[in-house]
Amino acid sequence: MKKLINAVENVLRESLDGFAAAHADLVRVAHDPTYVARADAPVRGKVALISGGGSGHEPLHAGFVGHGMLHAACPGEVFTSPTPDQMVAAAGAVDGGAGILLIVKNYSGDVMNFEMAAEMLPGAQATVLVNDDVAVEDSTYTTGRRGVAGTMVVEKIVGAAAEAGAELAACQALGERVNQATGSMGVALTSCTVPAAGTPTFTLGADEMEMGVGIHGEPGRRRVRLAQADAIAEEMIGAICQSLAPARGTPVLLHVNGFGGTPLMELYLMYHAAAKLCAARGLEIARSLVGSYTTSLDMAGCSLTLTRLDDELISLWDAPVHTPALRWGR
Amino acid sequence: MKKLINAVENVLRESLDGFAAAHADLVRVAHDPTYVARADAPVRGKVALISGGGSGHEPLHAGFVGHGMLHAACPGEVFTSPTPDQMVAAAGAVDGGAGILLIVKNYSGDVMNFEMAAEMLPGAQATVLVNDDVAVEDSTYTTGRRGVAGTMVVEKIVGAAAEAGAELAACQALGERVNQATGSMGVALTSCTVPAAGTPTFTLGADEMEMGVGIHGEPGRRRVRLAQADAIAEEMIGAICQSLAPARGTPVLLHVNGFGGTPLMELYLMYHAAAKLCAARGLEIARSLVGSYTTSLDMAGCSLTLTRLDDELISLWDAPVHTPALRWGR
């Protein structure tokens, strides 16, 4: 295992402390229990958005804490669900009196722990469950579809609504609407290596790829021979469009997400491939995002995400955001 | 070779076309000869900043084209210098009548081709040569020190000055001052693989790293056993500080740069390690930047960069920038 770390058991803490120091104007980190909160939290009178999950997917979620997006993130150990006490502590720190919205990726451990936390929260709370991965139903760690890169889209759009003063029920309904309008699918060219394991999570042959891979290296649809970018994009856009069934003329967000080990040059090439396919289906690419936002440690590969947009969603996507990983409009 | 590409010979073009499509509000791309220009260029009355170099270092340089930074970038083939006709065409497209400033990383091929271009430009022009890599004097491709991640710092700060209306001579002097105030050093845990080569540029043992590596995989100071993050950071910060000799109390920019294959989690851990060392030397970390900005395709590893700041440089660093890869203040 070749990683820039000290002791395996301190990876998360040292990384979070570095993150907090590098972005001290935006966030603060608490330990025991661990959470990352907006530096200006609690924001009085606003619904507080809290997300979280296993670490190793950075910048998701802590990188999206800040103005116009999340109020707190609860990072678990690498690929391990955070515990309910983290969420309860985070909620206590960021509760602005207008309720707590929990945004949860659909993994059985995350769902269970966020449910336990929800039962322990004293005030109003609601949950949005994200399950945008169209690759497979049921998988390692998950019953139903997995929550992947579309989670960031939910967090951005609902975060904008909360910042604008939307009430808890409206934020929840909006989150569910965005989730329904969003589909993703990924492909892995290499495995990731969890620091505490020290060896690759799975093995791929020199000419193989995992089509439909999950963001922890879970199996996807099938293991196949490495294909060209155009063919990979075609299978992924095809699967996403089969799920979303966007009518011709629908404005969409096209998000190309790197898994951590893939250079930007390849991500833009994949964008080029995916955009051609969207155009061929009559979709209007109204907004784009290319970069490594929902990663799987050092895995090489990428995912494509489409969100069906409308004027309201475009306006919320465009609203100012100021977080460590996503920033525009201020 | 496992890459998300179609034909090897089309990688650059397809990637640039994807880049231009994803950021059509900010940039436009021209082919034959190839350059990327600000969508609103030429900007009348402002010095036009042009940089360029081999591709494979994205987002450097094309990702820094936009308001407050570069006016154009000239991407060569992967790890291959751009040609003078690219620079001349770019200059023709972005010349706002106040002169052209060429920002060149110190590699013999880049220097030669930018010099040829400078001789062909009809109007006023000047050059800033960046050589921030403190690892080695003379190396593969280079006489003298190499230009690496500090180039982005030069481009940001001089770009802000040009946007504010600074004249050509002042921009050049500022660029040279920032270069003098900047030192970088890198470490590789794995090689990169150039698409057209198909095999890794160099070979590292499972427990080896290349200390002082260049951004094309050039040899550094020495090949040693993989060390812990703290020890790696100590050698790099030590070498940089030996070169910059910052007095105690000096405000600095600390930039942790990923080489393309290293997860953000490790980069923040390296930031944590480097920040402790800066504090121990009495340096004040006034500004921070963590992310993969000057990459080497899929190489795992990172570089550290320090720039000695003062009030003027902090103000220029903080000035609004709106490019595909760097954005704040608007």
What this model shows, in words?
The structure is a homodimer of 330-residue chains. Chain A has 330 residues and is an alpha/beta fold. The first copy, chain A, has two domains: 10-135 and 146-165, Rossmann fold (3-Layer(aba) Sandwich); 182-321, Dihydroxyacetone kinase, domain 2 (Hypothetical Protein Tm841, Chain: A,domain 3), CATH 3.30.1180. Chain A contains eight helices and 14 strands.
Keywords:
homodimer; 330 residues; alpha/beta; Rossmann fold; Hypothetical Protein Tm841, Chain: A,domain 3; 2 domains; six-stranded mixed β-sheet
Fraction of helical residues of chain A: 25-40%
Tell me the total number of β-strands of chain A: 14
- The number of helices of chain A is 8
Rg of chain A, rounded, reads: 19 Å
What is the end-to-end distance of chain A?
40 Å
pLDDT < 50 stretches of chain A? none
**β-sheet strand percentage of chain A:** 15-25%
CATH fold descriptor of the largest domain in chain A: Rossmann fold
Order of helices and strands of chain A: HEEEEHEHEHHEEEHEHEEHEE
Q: Specify the biggest β-sheet of chain A.
A: 6 strands, mixed
Q: Which CATH C-level class of the largest domain in chain A is it?
A: Alpha Beta
Please tell me the total number of domains of chain A: 2
- Per CATH, which architecture of the largest domain in chain A? 3-Layer(aba) Sandwich
Oligomer: homodimer
CATH superfamily of the largest domain in chain A: Dihydroxyacetone kinase, domain 1
Average pLDDT reading of chain A: 97
